[in-house]
Amino acid sequence: MNVSLLAYTRGINGESPEELALLIAQVPYKTKSKNSLKATLDRGHLSILEHLSFTFRIEDLSRVSQQQLTRHRIASYTIQSDRHTRPDGMVTPATVTTAHAVRQPSGTDEIEKLALLRDKGALTEEEFQAKKRQLLGR
Question: Within this chain, do residues 60 and 7 fall inside the same structural domain, yes or no?
């Protein structure tokens, strides 16, 4: 997984996120106190953090992890659509790959499915034979 910080909130005078949070913390108390950010947060004044914004780019994150992050809705997300991603670009955790290997259908499996369709009248005998030859490479 690759994580990079793309942007973060700065004050109009160039204040860092920590300095900005302390400026915001002064508002409810109409004070000019320069308490440390840790002291302010220790007092339970956590809403000051809601004014700050950090934008990260996270790459090579599994779909399950993406779902968990967005499910809790602790931030805003823009996620690459599965419709625009080729399967070879998807990240599959090693534990999933080894524990739940997905078997690709064989030619025999496909022919059996086609035979069922033929037997139910969904395919003609000619259509069945043509698809069978295609699957067998003849």
Answer: yes
CA atoms within 13 A on the CB side of 5: 5
Give the CA diameter of the chain.
87
Residue keyed to tokens 């991603």? 85
Q: Which domain holds residue 125?
A: 107-136
Q: Tell the burial category of 68 from Cβ atoms under 10 Å away from its Cβ (0-12, 13-18, 19+).
A: exposed
Do residues 64 and 122 share a domain? no
- The one-digit pLDDT tens for each residue of the chain (138 residues) are 888 999 888 989 999 998 888 888 888 777 776 777 888 888 888 888 888 888 888 888 877 888 888 887 677 777 776 666 666 656 666 666 555 556 677 788 889 999 999 999 999 999 999 998 888 886
Residues 125 and 62 in one domain: no
For residues 12 and 41, membership in a common domain is answered with yes
Domain count, the chain: 2
Beta bridge partners, 55, equal 7
Query: Does residue 77 sit in the same domain as residue 23?
Result: yes
Distance from C-alpha of 120 to C-alpha of 104, rounded to nearest angstrom: 25
Q: Is the alpha carbon torsion for 64, 66, 67, 73 positive or negative?
A: positive
